[in-house]
Design brief:
Helix 2 runs parallel beside helix 6. It contains 15 helices and 19 strands. The strands form 4 sheets. The chain has a 6-stranded mixed β-sheet with strand order 7-3-2-11-19-18, sandwiched between helices. Strands 12, 13, 14, 15, 16 and 17 form a 6-stranded mixed β-sheet that branches. Strands 1-10-9-8 form a 4-stranded mixed β-sheet, covered by helices on one side. 33% of the residues lie in helices and 19% in strands. It is an alpha/beta fold.
């Protein structure tokens, strides 16, 4: 057999052919509606559009669907049948009034009111798609507007919402393309004309369409946008669960001429470091309202009961020097959560009254590992040295706090007496608390039909934004008083965008 000699050119051709995507093809497709993002808003939009007769293509950049919605638990609703079954009477008007004042009238009050007025209808539509709900009040500072999702097949909560809608999308013929991020919008004469996408193998897709719904879930994993849009340090303020959210939909809208809105994030407290796992006993302890919080100066900076309103707790911690504080407690607190359970849970994943039976073991292990986030000492001055705060200042703060607990009055932050408990039994412990966020909020200005607006306040024909890509509902923070507001809005706005996209097809 003769040997085969390869020329340099032939070898280069073969080598090139072996590279990933070397033989990738370009595909031409068409759809009535393209939905970008298969999360809470995108799944609702896809099913709604398909039900109304549209040919739908759903693009998802990740290899899995759901996004942040898969980790959420419940949706906002007001004047619902689920509230009625519990004799709960908060009105849409009262809720709307509260939200407008909470956001200092910087949010679109009419958009918020429309969402609230139609939230019950939104949940009823979801219920027809095999999604079940229970209205609950998750903390003393929140209302019974949180409609926690029940089981669907082998999933529950947000994952059940996603799974149920995906099954309906499949039945309706929605073409879901996972691992295929949208790269850009195709615009012609100021109107949407299509979408360009590319999968992981380098296969490219040009999808001709006149209607695009952006539902990409914000920009929580885009460090540059965290700096430029939230004005926060991404090393100190982080996403709770990294989900490859890089603001794709927001940036595509801006490139198409969309007007911007202020942006914020749903902050919450938490902790991390050696010996600490997400939702472990140690993590949950960092949320407890009976802790004493101090900053780098060894001073209290907020009423610790803000953990009942997790977004405000996150704000308070983020506002401190280098965006952190310490939650201090004693052996009596450990005994309390071991026997009576916690006073505030973490959603319904860790319910209130959950007993932290493993807390002492986790504390000891973290200290033994030399965790920078967990310290213990037998005296307040020794603890001050370990956490790097002025000893005299911490000692004074500690004395003042315990005096407030004994007289049942906090003259500094007016913390309610039932959560003022002396911290003077046995050893002292400090857990470093930091701000995290569930998701970012806003970026693209929309009208009340979810049409994306340009810088002249005019709709960009064929372009819609839903879920947290859309702005206008929030000012500089998130209110937990209307529990489930962001998830509920995602579901409602996805449906609303789909309805209007299909109407536009028929004009």
């Amino acid at each position: 057999m003769k040997s085969v000699k390869l020329t340099a050119v032939t070898a280069a051709v073969i080598a090139t052919a072996m590279l990933p995507g070397a033989w990738a093809a370009e595909h031409a497709m068409n759809a009535d509606v393209v939905v970008i993002g298969a999360g809470g808003a995108g799944m609702a939009a896809s099913v709604k559009a398909a039900e109304n007769g549209a040919k739908v293509v759903l693009l998802e950049k990740n290899a899995f669907i759901g996004g942040g919605a898969a980790f959420a638990e419940g949706l906002y609703g007001i004047e619902t049948e689920w509230q009625r079954s519990k004799n709960y009477g908060l009105s849409s008007a009262e809720s709307s009034k509260y939200v407008q004042r909470f956001h200092h009238f910087k949010a679109d009050g009419k958009l918020n009111r429309l969402f609230m007025d139609e939230s019950a209808k939104s949940l009823e539509w979801l219920a027809k798609h095999d999604i079940t709900f229970e209205a609950i009040q998750v903390s003393p500072a929140e209302t019974m507007t949180w409609h926690v999702i029940g089981k669907y097949k082998d999933t529950n909560h947000g994952a059940a919402y996603i799974a149920a809608l995906k099954d309906h999308a499949d039945k309706l013929g929605v073409k879901t393309m996972m691992g295929t991020p949208a790269k850009s919008l195709i615009m012609k004469n100021g109107k949407v004309a299509g979408v360009k996408a590319e999968d992981g193998d380098g296969e490219t897709y040009t999808i001709t369409t006149s209607q695009v719904i952006l539902a990409t879930g914000g920009f929580g994993d885009n460090r540059d946008m965290i700096r430029s849009e939230l004005h926060q340090d991404p090393d100190h303020v982080k996403a709770s669960v990294p989900l490859n959210k890089t603001g794709d939909g927001i940036q595509m809208a801006w490139a198409a001429g969309a007007d911007r809105t202020p942006m914020t994030a749903v902050l919450h407290p938490g902790t991390e470091g050696k010996g600490i796992k997400f939702l472990s006993n140690l993590y949950v302890m960092s949320w407890q309202p009976f802790n004493m919080w101090v900053n780098n100066r060894g001073e209290r900076f907020a009423p610790e009961t803000l953990t009942f309103e997790f977004s405000l707790a996150g704000n308070a911690i983020e506002s401190q020097y280098q965006n952190y504080g310490w939650a201090i407690f004693d052996d009596a607190a450990i005994d309390y959560v071991n026997t009576k359970g916690v006073d505030v849970g973490v959603g319904v994943l860790i319910p209130t009254k959950t007993q932290l039976t493993n807390l002492k073991k986790e504390l000891d292990e973290a200290v033994k590992m030399g965790s920078d986030s967990v310290k213990t000492a037998s005296s307040v001055k020794a603890l001050a040295k370990k956490i790097g705060v002025p000893a005299d200042a911490l000692a004074a703060t500690y004395a003042d706090y315990n005096k407030a607990a004994r007289v049942h009055y906090d003259g500094d932050f007016f913390k309610e007496a039932q959560w003022l408990r002396p911290i003077d039994k046995g050893n002292l412990y400090a857990v470093r608390v930091q701000p995290y966020f569930f998701c970012t909020l806003g970026g693209v200005r929309v009208d009340r039909g979810m049409h994306v607006l340009d810088k002249n306040d005019k709709p960009i024909p064929g372009l819609y934004a839903a879920g947290v890509d859309a702005g206008g509902l929030w000012s500089d923070t998130y209110t937990t008083w209307t529990s489930g507001h962001a998830f509920g809005f995602a579901a409602w706005s996805g449906q609303k965008a789909a309805e209007n996209a299909v109407k536009a097809l028929k004009k």
